[in-house]
Amino acid sequence: MRIFDSDFPVPPSLTGPGGAYEMEVRRFRGHDHTMFKHAPRSLNALLGDAVALHRSKPDERMIEQDGQIISFGMFDARAAALAASLRDHPGVMAGDHVALVMANRAEWMMSFFAVLAIGAVPVMVNSRGAGVEMRRAIEAADCIAAICDQACFDRLAETVDLPVPVVLLGESARGTSLAVLDFDAASTPRPGVVLAFAAREPEGPALIMFSSGTTGFPKAVVHSQGGMAHSLTLGFLVNEAFDALYESEFGANAYAGLAQVNPPNVLSSPMFHVAGLLPFLRSIVKGQPTILITRWNAEAVFDLMERDGVMRLGLVPTMIFDMLASPRAQSGILSQIRFLANGTAALAPDVAAAIRQALPRCLMLNTYGQTETMERVATFGGREFEANLGAVGRVMPTMRLRILRDDGSDADPGEAGEIAVFSPTVMSGYYNDPQASAETIRDGWALSGDVGRFDETGLLHIVDRKKNMVISGGENIYCAEVERVLAEHPAVAEAIAFGEPDQRLGERLVAVAVLRAGAEAGEEELMAHCTARLARYKVPRAIGFMRDALPRNATGKVAKGDFLASYARPWT
Fold this sequence. Notes:
The protein is α/β, with parallel strands linked by helices. 31% of the residues lie in helices and 26% in strands. The model has no long low-confidence stretch (mean pLDDT 90).
């Protein structure tokens, strides 16, 4: 068995004997895992400790959204009241599943805490979905109640009434026959009611979220209490390691000269997804204010940076591009950013160069992970990342990876294969789907569905999604490789490649290029560009063009299914 253990650089003082992140081998979910010796063993214990600690500063800002501020004390009191109301009506008990069907807002956070405090399991429904999609998720997870905002409730009500009671944040139930509880009334602070987290076993369920669902129906992913506690703690360790890397590369403490000792966290990713959930939870544990961006707006982020001295940003490449394209990027305000984390797609060299010019004192970071692993699987940053933009990082601490062939054997060094992950952060399984769980988790190893390889320096590269492959004339072509090469052309903002049926080849590879504003390019030019960079069989047989951005799902990934359903192919 060829195992790639963590080689992510961590200062020994953090993980050695007596260190805050000292490690030990512990039995967890039937396997021996490397875990943190001194960390809380469950998510409920970790959040309970954090809430108790922050009660010493009840008036400090905890959440801000659209100019409205909620303090730690108010959040604590309202979440406690909501937990009591959920117990009273609709009678939520430990172990029950409760759907959170809301856009990013403070009430979503309160609901998450209230459900966990009872000992129940929050089910994080995609609030951007259609009513039928949200209903399907609620039913698939066997939820006994749902907490909705008005917009989501209206979409759900269009599908016919749900057979679960609803806690509604909004105007009214509009004549529905559902049992409805008003959110504001349910979360009104009550004298003597305190937020207390029920004790939960480390291997018990903590939450359910849904896979991104770029193909087929999203699956209900169950994460454990112990896995979530480990993930949060691991994130704190990695952040401290990046702090040390910053000081090493720039010769100064990352926090020196900041207007605030504990600058706020700007959150734009949806909290029903890993990219939004983990930053929200880590901010609360650390006592950082969280500023919610309701809709992505680069100018609003610039406003916050001017006011609050934001030093960390986690953005997808399209968001980074928006910020760099703003005239305010030239004002020097971006120089206060110390850490800029990229995810979901590789940074193009020209974008990385523009970031370096606009953010001269910024440590650029890259991450790779997925819903089923919760935490990042690989990450790196600084000069190593900038010199290896095609890689996704080094294996995270406490993680182990393998690269597998289709027959389950270990790939040779440098050979591409499916990435398998062994970590306490891996999901417990898919809810009510033992077959899919068994297909994905084998002897503790989670099959990612991603094709990757390690280079000679130990950096992980993602080649493609395993199912995002075209077999043309007997040759395997990974679409992501073709898309990357097309996007390297100066006229192309992004590209999508896919297969179409072909009588002779089985499938033929075709692509669509999204041109940059004001840019022009022809099919022959792009084919010549690909021919110079790819094996002949990997060059698309036809290339179409469009000006609008590719459709994306809630996590920022290209929604290939939506694209294929709507795009009119010019070559047919």
